[in-house]
Amino acid sequence: MTQTRDLATYAAGLRFEDLPNDVRDRARACIQDTVGISVFGANLPWGKAAIDYARRNAAAGDSALLGVPGVKISAPFAALANGVLTHAFEMDSLRKPGTGVHPGGIVPAALAVAQQEGASGGDLITAFVAGMEVMTRIGLSTRHSSEEKGFHAPGLTGVFGATVAAGSLLKLNAAQMCNAMGVAGSLCSGLLEFAKSGGGGMVKRLHIGRAAEGGVLAASLSKDGYEGPASVLEGEFGFLNAYAHEPLTEKLTDGLGDIWETRTICFKRCACHATAHAPVQAFEALRAEMDFTAADVDAISIGTSRKVLANHDIPAPRDLMAAQYSVPFSVALSFFHDPMDPMSFLKADLSDPSVLALSRKIKLDHFGETTKRGQAWACHARVALKDGREGAVVLNDFRGSPTQPMSEDEFDGKFRAAARGLGEGAMETLLSRLKSLDESTDVAGLAP
């Protein structure tokens, strides 16, 4: 036996009845969140490009293109396009603490295959959890070190989550699931150069799409007898040794079946990188407490992690992706526009002198608390005002994380803000179906 086989055996044997109620609820919530933000992504240029590509090349099928009413195509192309939509606007879910996985990235492959197979809502939830439990353990084993090598981690780990979820819905046995994971290891992709080049950020959106497409491919080939290495994760030339520094292979099966990684899913409130969420929330709190505006600010400093200092200190971003990736710009924008509305980022004027002036006043430095386990997103926010007043706040978490969940109204409000382009009637019908997913006998209706 290998650890890859152990994971495959677990995933192939997981059943809906095995899932604790809170794990089912977290999975269902992630599916709801992902569908909503995918509908929003369908109206963006890179989303439209992926949709057009899929429609030109796909055969007719049963899998919905999210945000495109009445259109159904073959599962691999639906997974590709919907994967791009899922990651189209920095609104998709994460794991807390971060480990290079995007839980929502499992949904495009799972939903496409579920609709192809006529699966139930319970089947879809089970497949999602199987993918999440496997994918997260792979991420933990990398110690989130893949990005130090220049890889965009969700493009690597995501293909395994998508493969396992698709394999669950295709009812792969343990041997087939192991082969599917073996195939998936050769389908990983995604480079971080978009964060350094000053342009080309659109490619980031493709990484989740390719992971979702790869998951459908790997699972489908395995069902037809295709083979892959059973040591694809831990082997000498396997995934961990190829993509990670000093991997912790013992994490691959640690707590498997007892510790539910699905409980760690973290949802975003704002359409920007996760590292900006605590700072944005911190300055919301400081402005409410001290009653000041951007014009009153003399200086701002934010204590944050070394990862943020290396990758997210972009005071004057050149494109929209870089703006969403930038902690200073995201914080500055939140002084002038509602950060909960994705349109605030979509319509952002990257040359706005007021936003840029404030962004350039924001200085980042290292905050030692971020080196502690589970505190990578912590921040120490400090402001000095022109009238001499000073304020500071430390946040170890942000709303949407497991320890600070959004209210149901706030969570559903995010869905409505993202999916409002469908029109109120279609949007509310889709939301109702998603909220009662575990009672659904057929997920074909999960389409705008």
Can you summarize this structure?
This protein is an alpha+beta fold and 448 residues long. It contains 18 helices and eight strands.
Structure characterization notes:
The protein is of the alpha+beta class and 448 residues long. The chain has 2 domains: 3-269 and 412-445, 2-methylcitrate dehydratase PrpD (Orthogonal Bundle), CATH 1.10.4100.10; 274-395, 2-methylcitrate dehydratase PrpD (60s Ribosomal Protein L30, Chain: A), CATH 3.30.1330.120. Helices cover 48% and strands 8% of the residues. The protein contains 18 helices and 8 strands. The strands form 3 sheets. The chain has a 4-stranded mixed beta sheet with strand order 6-5-7-8. Helix 2 (21-41) crosses helix 4 (75-86) and helix 5 (107-117) runs antiparallel to helix 6 (121-142). The mean pLDDT is 96.
